[in-house]
């Protein structure tokens, strides 16, 4: 799993193209459009100011209790909890969310690992390029597997 590698990102994009608005998850409650929007939140947090950053106390607890789960090697469990800003309750435009996700995946790959070395995370502070790789890649793998692609 290397989000900076063109071959890997091409495989991920190919899997994304296998999704349709009617693709059903093997677990969980999200629809395909909601899942794509959910994945886009992590990229939005990395590249935009769309979401309010947590205050110092919240960031301390996120770094202490959540960071190792998010950037560590262990896969996410099925039906795990997620942060409120990642909950997508309304319907979204499937094609728009899909194209936005593909754009972000290609952007990360094109920027490369050096861009992400020491880059500030919205929730966890400065991360290594390897931690960014795990955070983005593990999240995508989890949800594409959830939807059987």
Description:
Helix content is 56%, strand content 3%. With 149 residues, the chain is an all-alpha fold. It has one domain. The protein has a two-stranded antiparallel ribbon with strand order 1-2. β1 and β2 (125-126) form a beta hairpin. It is globular. The two termini are 16 Å apart. The relative contact order is 0.25.
Number of strands: 2
- The unreliable regions are none
| Biggest beta-sheet profile | 2 strands, antiparallel
* β-strand amount: under 5%
Main sheet: strand order: 1-2
Give the count of structural domains.
Answer: 1
Kindly name the structural category: mainly alpha
Give a brief outline of the structure.
With 149 residues, this protein is an all-alpha fold. The chain contains six helices and two strands, in the order αααααββα. The protein has a two-stranded antiparallel ribbon.
């Amino acid at each position: 799993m290397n989000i900076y590698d063109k071959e890997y990102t091409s495989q991920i994009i190919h899997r994304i193209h296998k999704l349709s608005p009617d693709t059903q998850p093997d677990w969980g409650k999200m629809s395909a459009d909601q899942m794509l929007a959910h994945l886009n939140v992590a990229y939005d947090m990395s590249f935009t100011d769309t979401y309010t950053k947590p205050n110092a106390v919240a960031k301390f607890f996120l770094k202490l209790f959540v960071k190792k789960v998010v950037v560590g090697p262990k896969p996410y469990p099925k039906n795990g909890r997620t942060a409120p800003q990642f909950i997508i309750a309304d319907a979204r435009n499937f094609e728009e969310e899909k194209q936005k996700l593909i754009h972000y995946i290609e952007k990360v790959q094109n920027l490369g690992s050096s861009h992400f070395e020491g880059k500030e995370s919205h929730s966890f502070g400065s991360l290594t390029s390897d931690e960014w790789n795990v955070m983005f890649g593990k999240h995508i793998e989890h949800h594409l597997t959830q939807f059987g692609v």
